[in-house]
Design a protein that fits this description.
It contains three helices and 15 strands. It has helices at residues 3-19, 49-62, 249-270; strands spanning 28-36, 65-71, 75-80, 92-98, 104-108, 113-120, 123-130, 137-145, 148-160, 167-168, 184-194, 212-217, 221-230, 245-247, 277-283. It is globular and about 55 Å long.
Length: 285
């Protein structure tokens, strides 16, 4: 019996032990914390060391977020907890643009589809599409996260390379050649899941493992579960969002690409009127 077969057997045994504790109508609530690596190199002609460090620390805070996953065996909602934005360093104006956000992400695991309600550029979108199968490789490593025994799984994904576009007083042009083919790279995603909670779900769009995903890392961002409540006393309804302009994921991506280009052109045309240091940072989703 090879390592992967043994792992599947162990997972199956664990599922048999815990499935009785989870009735058909059970519900859970998992709290996740996210952190992102921030590494921005600027020379001394663009920004002094003190302000550079302030910017790095502010960006780290910007990406430290808390999310709540409310789930049952068939569906889930994933929402960010509301919090105050970190203060910007004195004399610096920063414009953050992220194309990967979500106000409410609803996943229906049974029907293999999702609905992402997202407000972008002052307009609410309702992105509706199919959940894509993730080709996970089950690994032999295990570790504990809190009270739960977790198993490792990995997958690779090809993504477009989106550099953090940084403009200090317009020194760097964020525009790109429309005829230039996008640069792609392969990334490895590592997930840790627990069969002790037998739902094929996890944070964001991650799913498809024989247990709840408690941690995931894509090399840049880490999302880890800090708290789990099974059958909470004040259970929240798992409702699919309905408000917004209905679009597919492909349609939404095209709209965002157009809006980002318009914003960059607008900023370049207005940069001469700016008094302080304007830092534009674009993070790909």
């Amino acid at each position: 019996m090879n390592t992967i077969t043994k792992l599947l057997v162990v997972t199956a045994v664990m599922l048999l032990h815990v499935v009785g504790a989870f009735g058909q109508d059970f519900q859970g609530e998992a709290t996740y914390k996210s952190k992102r690596k921030v590494d921005i190199q600027l020379d001394s002609t663009q920004m002094d060391t003190g302000m550079h460090q302030q910017m790095i620390e502010m960006l780290k805070k910007q990406f430290e977020k808390t999310f709540i996953l409310t789930f049952n065996k068939e569906a889930s909602t994933y929402k960010e907890e509301e919090s105050l934005a970190p203060p910007q360093p004195q004399g610096m104006q920063m414009v953050m643009v992220s194309t990967g956000g979500s106000d409410v992400l609803y996943k229906n695991i049974k029907e293999k589809r999702y609905t992402n309600q997202n407000e972008s550029f002052s307009k609410v979108f309702l992105i509706q599409d199919s959940l894509q199968d993730i080709e996970w490789t089950l690994e032999k490593e295990t570790k504990n996260i809190g009270d739960y025994t977790c198993f490792k799984a990995t997958t690779t994904r090809q993504i477009e390379v989106v550099e953090s576009g940084i403009s200090v007083n317009g020194d760097k042009d964020l525009s790109t050649d429309e005829n230039e083919a996008p640069k792609m790279k392969d990334i490895t995603i590592t997930a840790w899941y627990t069969p002790q909670i037998p739902v094929s779900n996890g944070p964001g769009n991650y799913h498809g493992l024989p247990g709840l995903i408690l941690e995931v890392n894509d090399g840049t961002e880490t999302v880890i579960c800090s708290k789990i409540i099974i059958n909470p006393k004040d259970a929240m309804a798992i409702e699919e969002p309905k408000k917004g302009k209905e679009v597919s994921q492909e349609e939404y991506d095209k709209i965002m690409a157009k809006k980002l280009k318009e914003m960059e052109e607008r900023m370049r045309s207005n940069r001469r009127d700016s008094d302080g240091q304007n830092i534009e940072i674009r993070i790909g989703g």
